[in-house]
Amino acid sequence: MKFDTIIRNGTIVTASDTFRCDVGIQDGCIIALADNLFDAAEIIDASGPYVMPGGIDSHVHLAQPSGDGIVMADDFASGTLSAAFGGNTTVMPFCMQEKGTTLRESLKVYHEKAKGECYIDVSFHIVVTDPTGYVLGQELPALVEDGYTSIKVFMTYDNLRLRDDEILATLDSARSSGALVMVHCENEDAIRFLIGRHEKNGELAPKYHATSRPVAAEREATHRALSLAEIVETPIVIVHVSNREAMEEIQRARARGSKVAGETCPQYLMLTADDLDATELDGAKFVCSPPPRDKQSQAACWEGLQNGTFDVFSSDHCPFRFEDDQGKLNGKGKRNFRWIPNGIPGVETRLPILFSEGVGKGRIDLNRFVALSSTNHAKLYGLYPQKGTIAIGSDADIALWDPNKSVKITNDILHHGSDYTPYEGLDVTGWPVRVLVRGKTVTDGATLVGAKGSGNYLDRARSSLAHSRANS
Ligand code: DUC
Ligand code: ZN
Ligand code: ZN
């Protein structure tokens, strides 16, 4: 047989083109794109759905320690399963450096957690929380050579945030090694001041999470991160941008010549701070950082997806259970918003929401959908062209999308470990009906076909944004 699998009569959509042909797959790779392919062990009829690169979600959290007594709702098995049902073929979770440990020690822990568990391919970003001379001078350059080519730093959270001098040292090391730095931009001192003021006033409900983390705290930190990156000439990614003012900081930095990528997420298109002001403690379901803003901010984020301010659309899947004393409603979280774990589930709903609200409502076209959901993630994080496109030689990571399938999103139909979805009741049109990773079907849309452990760990090349400055 010439092929293991042929996907026949499909409309192929890439980030740049839409065209009709068959896809021939062998040994997990695309080896032919042509009409009338024949001679395969398996023929998949794709005359109805679109044939798209599988989604790459470059911002997810799985099995991450999240504070005393708090347990994340997804491990690598449930998180990658949920991702597959949402049309994804690769996810990029974070490996969190525990203070006082090396990056290699932290990686060992996360590789153990992921080993034999994943349904789709995975690759780690490393969160640097303890940027010692050894970490920045010895470990990071060696890790980049080994394929760990992106890191994240936090400007908020007492136990995670780096001071400005530490951020500069980290950026400087990243520039010379060619690592790409993702930055969580919120001003910790301002947030702590506002939390303290709310506590003094007895304002403890979930809605005060939003007012304790205002736009100005995000805008200021975004400006500072971009300025620090400019000083040491290091490309950065501003992750989970929630509003226009932070977007304008990115636009101004680019106009000054800085290399900056931008990311936004479904919560900033679909939720507002009003969702945190729900009855009882339901607002805790929407606590994430930065918090959702207002309708004008949602419109701004859509503009950013259209005009290129944002390169990637990620879920920031960071799931906790709601009715659970190890989750949102832990003993302290019930009494005070500051103890509600930050983060919401979304790896399975990211793409249906972007497809339905974006393509379906005419805000973006199909090719932009593919760019924002897959191709740009692969390029930004050093996986292209192995991943993120449909081309000869690329991995056969493919999602078949039925553009007309209408689905009401409810927690019952999802596969994550959380007991709720922030998008309960949302009607979407467009759904992934078959997902293949390296040519093997993981789900037919309704049932699981793939096996736990079939996902690979991916070493990565340097970022398209970072490598041109490497070693300069
Ligand atoms: N930052 C993230 O990237 N995810 C969840 C929580 C946070 O602060
Ligand atoms: Zn973050
Ligand atoms: Zn995150």
TrEMBL record:
Free-text description of this protein's post-translational modifications in UniProt? Carbamylation allows a single lysine to coordinate two divalent metal cations.
For this UniProt entry, what's an example GO CC term? cytosol
Q: Which GO terms describe its molecular function?
A: hydrolase activity, acting on carbon-nitrogen (but not peptide) bonds, in cyclic amides; metal ion binding
| This protein's record includes keyword Phosphoprotein | yes
Q: What CDD domains does the database record attribute to this sequence?
A: D-HYD
Q: What does this protein do?
A: Catalyzes the stereospecific hydrolysis of the cyclic amide bond of D-hydantoin derivatives.
Question: Per its UniProt record, what NCBIfam families does this chain match?
Answer: D-hydantoinase, PRK13404.1
PANTHER family, per this entry? COLLAPSIN RESPONSE MEDIATOR PROTEIN, HYDRANTOINASE/DIHYDROPYRIMIDINASE FAMILY MEMBER
Q: What's the protein name?
A: D-hydantoinase
What species was this sequence derived from?
A: Ensifer oleiphilus
